[in-house]
Each structure stands twice: as structure tokens, then as C-alpha cells.
Q: What sequence folds into this?
């Protein structure tokens, strides 16, 4: 199992095979940072990432041999330091350490922690930073994982961006039960993700179709309204996008951007195992408590 306080997913996610010759020492699970990047790029290709994205190896020496990998949603300063304490030469994340290149690379101070200071600390500690961001967002492993977590049957992609591979954003799903309400679906999200979501719509509405989306919903709310889907479960939606969609009858369950994407750490772990890395060499860094929702207290 992955070294983590989180439980792993059940079963594989149909990961594409990686040939043994991509490894430094075929059959031994011995990798360099560059080996891991090349192998994972075969699963999460750059040509399926957004043009503005920064993915792959952003910080570090490709020739460094890797014995342990830290896995996290975000390459924060604390995640870099924790990976170093765990003996990791690589921190593999969903999000990149920067989109726009930092103007400076200086140590973090008590008042300022910038992407440049994270890069500085990673380089100082010898922790390479690698991510697969939007190429991971559109990977077929993601809808399979999210739908199975929520007890839904995945049917297809709503907003197809890459027709040749049928990859894109928004995962059309159907409930496995004959009758389910928005209230039940929202409660299930609380149970699965461990956070209280923001919910728009009639709690007693009957749900026949669900569109799931990790991270920001983009234009999916409008697409759901136009195509008559009942509920959108997303990581993040702007108020002025949610309001008209809800008034048009769309139920919306907003999980929180990070909450919706934390399971992607398990997808990355499965991908590392598929290319030959031992689960005992992986360490998922728990970022589940970056923010909290205080409970109401009555005196």
C-alpha cells in the first residue's frame, strides 16, 4: 500500500503499459527523475494538456536516482520540506509550482511565501518537482475513480476536447439506484469526501443524470442546463455562474477545488506502480486540512 493516512482505491484503473526499456535498470524498479518523467508522459501526454499549462519536470536534475517519491495535490513549501524529511528525491503533484515563471528565487520569509521561494527550497533540499495537471484532468482514470467513489455509473465525456481519444471535461454519470434525490447525493458527498459542500437546488429533486468535474467547472454548468442534466458535482463554481444555472433547475454540489482533486493523488500512485515503482517507495502527503469549516456552537 501507499504510505499514507488515506486509503487506496480498489483495483487498477486500466493504466497503459510502459515498456521495460524506459527504466534505468529494466525489471528492478530503479529509476532516475528523467525516467519517471518519460514514463508518466506516456500516460499523461503533453499534447493533451492545455496550451497555457506548465507540466512535467519543472525543478530538479533528471539524472538523480529516485528511491522515494512524495505525492501531493499541491507543491507547497511544507510539502517540499515534508518530502525531504521522508527521504524523497521527487515530489509528484497534480498542480504545478507555477504557471507564470517567478520573477525571483529567494528563501521564504515569515511574511512572503511565493512560487519562487518554493522553487528555491526544492532546489536547496534536492527535491525535484513534477506535475501532470491538465493532462491528468482529462485522463480516463479520473472519471472512473470519481464515479466509483460516489456509486455512479460513468457513461461518457460531456465536453470532448480531444475527439481522437474522447478525452475532455465533465463526466456524465447515472445513479446506480432507481430513485435518488439531491439531498441523498449531497449527503453521500459528505461521507465520501469528508467535507460539507455548498449545495444549490431543491433537496427533494429526483436525480437521473449527474455530471462530475474535479477542480473548476469552466462552462459545464451552462452545458448541463442546455442538455438537461440534473446535477453538477464540481470542485469550484463562481457565484454568478451558479445562480442562473440553479434558477434554470440545475442542482449543484460544490465540493471545494482541492477536496474534489485530492483523490487524484491515488491516480498518480497507481500510475507510478504501473511503471514499476514499489508502493512502499511512495508517500502521499496529507493536504486534507489546508482549510476548515467551523461547526456552529449553541450556548
A:
Amino acid at each position: 500500500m501507499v504510505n499514507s493516512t488515506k486509503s487506496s482505491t480498489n483495483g487498477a484503473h486500466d493504466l497503459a503499459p510502459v515498456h521495460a526499456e524506459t527504466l534505468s535498470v529494466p525489471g528492478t524498479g530503479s529509476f532516475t527523475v528523467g525516467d519517471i518523467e518519460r514514463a508518466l508522459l506516456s500516460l499523461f501526454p503533453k499534447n493533451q494538456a492545455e496550451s497555457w499549462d506548465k507540466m512535467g519536470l519543472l525543478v530538479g536534475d533528471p539524472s538523480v536516482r529516485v528511491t522515494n517519491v512524495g505525492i501531493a495535490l499541491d507543491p507547497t513549501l511544507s510539502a517540499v520540506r515534508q518530502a525531504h524529511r521522508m527521504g524523497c528525491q521527487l515530489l509528484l503533484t497534480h498542480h504545478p509550482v507555477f504557471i507564470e515563471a517567478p520573477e525571483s528565487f529567494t528563501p521564504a520569509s515569515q511574511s512572503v511565501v511565493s512560487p519562487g521561494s518554493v522553487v528555491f527550497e526544492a532546489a536547496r533540499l534536492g527535491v525535484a518537482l513534477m506535475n501532470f495537471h491538465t493532462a491528468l484532468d482529462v485522463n480516463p482514470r479520473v472519471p472512473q475513480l470519481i464515479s466509483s467513489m460516489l456509486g455512479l455509473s460513468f457513461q461518457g465525456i460531456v465536453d470532448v476536447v480531444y475527439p481522437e481519444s474522447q478525452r475532455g471535461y465533465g463526466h456524465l454519470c447515472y445513479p446506480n439506484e432507481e430513485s435518488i434525490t439531491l439531498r441523498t447525493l449531497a449527503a453521500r458527498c459528505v461521507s465520501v469526501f469528508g467535507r460539507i459542500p455548498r449545495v444549490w437546488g431543491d433537496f427533494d429533486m429526483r436525480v437521473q443524470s449527474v455530471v462530475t468535474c474535479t477542480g473548476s467547472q469552466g462552462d459545464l454548468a451552462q452545458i448541463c442546463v442546455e442538455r438537461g442534466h440534473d446535477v453538477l458535482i464540481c470542485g469550484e463554481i463562481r457565484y454568478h455562474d451558479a445562480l442562473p444555472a440553479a434558477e434554470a433547475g440545475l442542482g449543484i454540489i460544490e465540493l471545494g477545488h482541492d477536496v474534489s482533486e485530492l483523490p487524484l493523488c491515488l491516480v498518480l500512485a497507481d500510475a507510478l506502480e504501473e511503471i514499476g515503482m514499489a508502493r512502499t517507495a511512495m508517500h502521499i502527503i496529507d493536504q486534507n486540512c489546508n482549510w476548515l469549516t467551523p461547526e456552529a456552537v449553541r450556548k
Q: What stands out?
A: Residues 4-28 have pLDDT under 50 and may be disordered.
